[in-house]
Amino acid sequence: MLHRFLTAAAAVLLAAGLAAPATAQTADAKSDSANIRKIYDEALLRGQSYENLRYLCQNIGGRLSGSPQAEQAVQWGKQTMEKLGFDRVYLQEVMVPHWVRGPKEKGSFKAGKGNQSVAVCALGGSVGTKGKLKAEVIEVRSMQELRDLPTEKVKGKFVFFNRPFDDRLIEPGAAYSAAGDQRRSGAVEAAKRGAVGALVRSLTSALDDNPHTGTMRYEDGVTQVPAAALSTLAANRLSEQLKQTPGLTFELEMGCQTLPDVKSYNVVGEIKGSKYPDEIITVGGHLDSWDLAQGAHDDGTGCVQSIEALRLLLASGLRPERTVRAVLFMNEENGNRGGIKYAELAKAAGEKHLAAIESDGGGFTPRGFGLETNNKATVTQMQKWSPLLQPYNAGNLQPGHGGTDIGPLKDQAKVLIGYDCDSQRYFDIHHTAADNFDKVHKRELELGGAAMASLIYLLSKYGL
Amino acid sequence: MLHRFLTAAAAVLLAAGLAAPATAQTADAKSDSANIRKIYDEALLRGQSYENLRYLCQNIGGRLSGSPQAEQAVQWGKQTMEKLGFDRVYLQEVMVPHWVRGPKEKGSFKAGKGNQSVAVCALGGSVGTKGKLKAEVIEVRSMQELRDLPTEKVKGKFVFFNRPFDDRLIEPGAAYSAAGDQRRSGAVEAAKRGAVGALVRSLTSALDDNPHTGTMRYEDGVTQVPAAALSTLAANRLSEQLKQTPGLTFELEMGCQTLPDVKSYNVVGEIKGSKYPDEIITVGGHLDSWDLAQGAHDDGTGCVQSIEALRLLLASGLRPERTVRAVLFMNEENGNRGGIKYAELAKAAGEKHLAAIESDGGGFTPRGFGLETNNKATVTQMQKWSPLLQPYNAGNLQPGHGGTDIGPLKDQAKVLIGYDCDSQRYFDIHHTAADNFDKVHKRELELGGAAMASLIYLLSKYGL
Known about the structure:
2 copies of one chain form a homodimer. The first copy, chain A, is α/β, with parallel strands linked by helices. Chain A folds into 2 domains: 23-98 and 260-462, Zn peptidases (Aminopeptidase); 102-255, Glucose Oxidase, domain 1 (3-Layer(bba) Sandwich), CATH 3.50.30.30. Chain A has helices spanning 4-7, 9-17, 27-46, 49-60, 68-83, 143-148, 151-154, 172-179, 181-192, 232-244, 296-315, 337-348, 376-383, 386-389, 426-429, 442-462, and strands at residues 88-100, 106-111, 114-118, 120-122, 132-140, 158-161, 197-201, 227-230, 249-253, 257-271, 276-286, 322-329, 352-358, 366-372, 396-399, 413-421. In chain A, strands 1-10-12-11-13-16-14-15 form an 8-stranded mixed beta sheet, sandwiched between helices. Chain A is elongated. Chains A, B: Homodimer. The monomeric form is inactive while the homodimer is active.
């Protein structure tokens, strides 16, 4: 029942007065505290990010670069920000890769009498199989294990990369990092040893039948072989069967292909700074998503939170002193062309970027922000704001990573900032058919947008 | 895609070495850090709490005090701890209330031509309606508003308590606190003014059709009138209709009743302290749950985490220096008889309680612990352990509330400790038909058990 909430004095006090936190001492801190409270009130009582996300997910859906849905999303982003009355809303043209999955992929292996179908999907960027591709399978757990194998053990086979997530790691993102070489480089490393394809265990701790897609790459001079993800359950089944039937054959059928590049856009919405219009704070997420689902947590949430952050400032009467831009980047998933283009244009225009913030780790309960900068004084200065964000459980300001889209701004911005939220559920659905609107929690999403708006408020008031 | 995890140097380092945190300086701190890492490894690689919870939820299910399922749960708890080889497993007899819901409740109001059915459920402890109870409805938002009404406006009617959660509050638990008087005292306050029943808006921010049950109380000398919860959508519909049809009648049918008290049990599992067996650390959750669902987050998670905390210590080779007890308390939801009995028996036996920990806020991602004590030095001492828990995102040790079951130990224990986890989703499902196993996330649950075991390890090593 949790009676504690019925008796906790602090909770009741907070309920009664919504008191500013005790950390607010100076006049500035008091006014900052009150202003951040305004931002949160607006987000929690009249937040628009959840309904914006509903539209993006349910009316547009998955929006891989080059797809018609990606273009619909560009128009949606532009119109959404125009309706909110930002000072300026515009598109930045950028050519993006155009990879298409084709018909639903098929995978199976011979177990006992018949073929056993397993859940597979093409990795993004993979070539297709040109009909059915049938070959034996050799399982490895690491690139080193593959390199140590005699070529004749690999030649003509599928290499099956089956290293699971290291569940000991507290952040699933660290496990993703540690297992990610299999997806990114598996096909290239397999092809170098004469393999005909790569089968990759899905990058997740979850045991289910959702294959996880995600980008892979080829290398000049290395044969391009197909690469597919297996669901974790499929990977376990295949691994078990291989112990009993080392010579079993796997059959893969994928019709994916890469088409010519397509014209697309970043979407930019801007509020001009009232005092220092030439100093820019960018906040963004990426508008493109994988095609298997609605792209809710990856990264619809980052897009709607970025738009919301600007709306919250205006609606709270906190017009920023520095220029603030919400940027919906195109093509994070398989090329980062939008992020690169944004930084190029900023440089060409001689823009002065104070900070860039990205939300691309899902729309879960906030924890704080990761700060990417070589300047320790910047970290120290920003950490002084922690008490203002702590009442909202968003005060964890630590050195960390910004984000892929804002990465190319590294040499132009004083700090790159990654929005940090609870990460335990993210890789259950990441890049799968399950990354849909129903996985997003309204308040968790709103709290994130408010945290981002609050940080922007402080950055825009105090500078760096 | 979240490329940041593919490049973040810290993540890769951690992945490679699972290095002890940099905060570990002294030899003691180094060994503590390594031991806590052992606890987490055990939990994350070989954790048993999730499968234990699956059994409790899916094979036993809802287990309100006095029900056959509550007794099955007692046997399950005893056998589970016996199998784990704790030094001593025993039951503490306690008489508990026995309230039964009866057939599914019915509620409807007349809107336009026909009756509109709405989702209702009896509040725990309510009397039934003895057939159909039909009356007009008067809506109020607060007890004061009710008190200010002339008696003739209330007499013979249902009082409809429709104050929603205050969504501005960051912790939904604080909103629960602020709205909770309606459920607890609504029936009594309504009856004092001659009303025939109380209709209470469900205690949640979620807008859906799940009514939320929960305990209510009567007062000597005040007529006992039936009290029901309306889903938030039903409450909104009724409120809207009342504006159009102030004289509308509501019809309620509930067959609930309170039967004579029943014999039940707390379940206690104990590991004897190797150095100071007379100093006791209790860790617990409550075994009873509301009857509408499986009682997963409330409080199956607290039970399996408490058992797991002891198992983790043994499996990690960290036999505690002080005595540690896992206690599955009976009857938190509607009486707290188990918690009271445990404290009584402890007092009668002259036991020395060092600390008592409760997990009863759901099994979500850990944040830390709330410390309830009048002794500031205890808080200061415990906060020094924060760096050891921070690498696991469980280092937030702040003054707070312990828990209902351990509350009666307040005068006997040096500190009461409430396990603190992310709370945004808890009140969506709390006391509803949706509080089922599928809402619990394996890693979130396991991280909680490991956090509790780690704190117990420190308490048992250093004392207070």
